[in-house]
Amino acid sequence: MTLEKKHISAAIILIAAAVISIITGRQFLAKHYPETFYPSPGLTRTGKLSDYFSGLQGTENDSRVYFFEGEEEGSTVLLLGGTHPNEAASGLVAVLVLENVEVTVGRLIVIPRANRSGFTVNDPMEAHPQYYSIPTPNGERRFKYGSRLTSPLDQWPDPLVYSHRPSGQRLSGFETRNLNRAYPGRPDGSLTEKTAYGIVQLIKKENVNVAFDLHEAAPEIPIINAIVYHEKAEEVALNAIFELEMEGISVSPELSPSNFHGLSHREWGDYTDVYPFLMETSNPIQGRLRGETSAELIVEGVSPEYRMALESGALQIAYKETGEPIERRVARHVTCFRRVIEAYNQLGNKPVILENLPEYEDILQNGVGAYIVAGK
Ligand SMILES: [Zn+2]
Measured in angstroms, how far is the CA atom of residue 316 from the centroid of ligand 1? Predict the structure, then answer.
């Protein structure tokens, strides 16, 4: 190759690298713009997590907090979505609730993006899409699909072994960026620990009585279609699950293990007066057996590979013949959330009355898009 040809090749490679950098750089930056939500007219005020712990000010995880306060005094409920931003139904349910709910008695506090940093990246090596879309009567609405963990750009490097404070429990190093292994959190810890600390401060300062942490998991994970509860909330959980079973919604009751630390359903209950509940639905895109990985898999939940596993009978999986569509996962979470609050009210506690939320069958029939505002 002559010197001139070498120069031309080098120039082409440089230009191609610049074009790729600009395109991917723009995509990367776009993941940092906050999503727009459209709260219902029942919204009374908003705040930020830094209102409860100033150490979060100016960080990616100074998440927005939405308040819906009834005219009549009652108990206070907290709903957390997006602890793990790769668990789509979790964040979507929080959006559906905040865009519809009317509170007549008591208060509801919603944090739709608990670990906002995790929404700015995807999990490495998973081929996950950056976004997924929900069809609404007025067009598609796009949501961010993120990572289970805090972004390494916000918290780095991971230790070889993560030592949970104050229990001293040891986990793999990457778990240091898992919000649901960080409770009760530390004011002088990592960003993930600070976020957990801020949420616990909110529970204390707002005197939250009942708190929900919404999740999804791979179909082959044993704790699925489940409500995990702290022992002090057992009566409420079992009453709610009885009601759900009567409606034909099968939910497994899971008592929070007392020796596994860092989890919302354990530490919220141990460190505050709240009754904590964690809920799980089945999301095939998180599973090891899934085949083609796409935004459609998040929404439609149809995986021929999981169907084969179901038909073989060789594996205990939470996967139905028709798949695990987002409608059913969202309907499950919304209904479990409502039934737990109703059980709490029926057991003689100061009530919380939430109105204008769809029933299980409504969401299955009309789709999630019928209950969220159409937008970008
Ligand atoms: Zn999760």
Answer: 19
